[in-house]
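Table 4 source record.
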Amino acid sequence: MTEEFYRIKRLPPYVIAEVNNMRAAARAAGEDIIDLGMGNPDLPPPQHVIDKLCEVAQKPDAHGYSASKGIPGLRKAQANYYGRRFGVDLDPESEVVVTLGSKEGLASLATAITAPGDTILAPNPSYPIHTFGFIIAGASIRAVPTTPDEEYWESLERAMAFTVPRPTLLVVNFPSNPTAEVVDLAFYERLVAWAKENKVWILSDLAYSELYYDGNPTPSILQAKGAKDVAVEFTSLSKTYSMAGWRVGFAVGNKTLIDALSRVKSYIDYGSFTPIQAAACAALNGPQDIVEKNRALYHKRRDVLVESFGRAGWEIPPPAASMFAWAPLPPELAHMGSLEFSKQLLTEAGVAVAPGVGYGEEGEGFVRIAMVENEQRIRQAARSVKKYLQSMGVNTDSQQEAI
């Protein structure tokens, strides 16, 4: 009997889990850890959404199996959201499927459309499921840059010219997790034209669509002309409505890809609990003031993070979107690498961040900082970081003293 399982052998140790385990052990020992590592919202969903969950859960007939592709009302609510937010028309029956969060949806689509030996183009650094969902399904990954500049387009052309077998799918994620980079509609229009020319599917992860700052709404790839011919897009209620633990996401777009995803899901799940889906309808169809409220809150946290950490001696570029900052290691400590730096920041400063190398080799030299603590805690983290940097010989004297 073998204990060497094919797919498990293809998965490396989850680097981010190493820091997570250290954080959990420290908290179990009674230490006060400021957790800026995991992108886990600290805010509750809107009250009317919780009320709808409780209301429907009281119904005797609400506890049986649900619909794998999502109840009709929820698929219609998502189609309506795309209509009012992006001006995109979607057929709720053939172009929308509900997923158990975008992460499950990405993995299930990879299972549905990937053959062993296929080559997938994915960004590096990237959120792990963007690569490992396809690796689990048997594909090989060719990395492309995250930054959407001319080097990006050159890397796509090289990949098509020199990769055997030719890539079949490209993963894009803007606003990016972990780098927080954004693109405009012109980028998507060029990308759709490239995909059609090269006969490549596009999978777009738009999980952070509503967390944009400085007055620049993030576009959907489906706004590009002809995008539904080649693209499917994933979104989630996790960050927009602070419903991460509810596990409600969506895939929308190309009918062929949606049908393949729906068919695989019909074999492996019955959909989420019906009261959760009903509450998700309430989130999408109800008052939307929570969306602007959350955006303003994360915007303020971003500004406090950049200001207070800068005063502490650690310059952090302000992200244009998402709930993350992608921070280069302080130059004096860059030799440590992102994993060791993250460990020391946890043990010496009581601040948890995610090591960049956990998102791919191109993430080395950075850490991801999640804006999931309130402003007071972020300032507290900055004070602890300053003491740590000073203990390591980093000169912070040129920085302002007040944090």
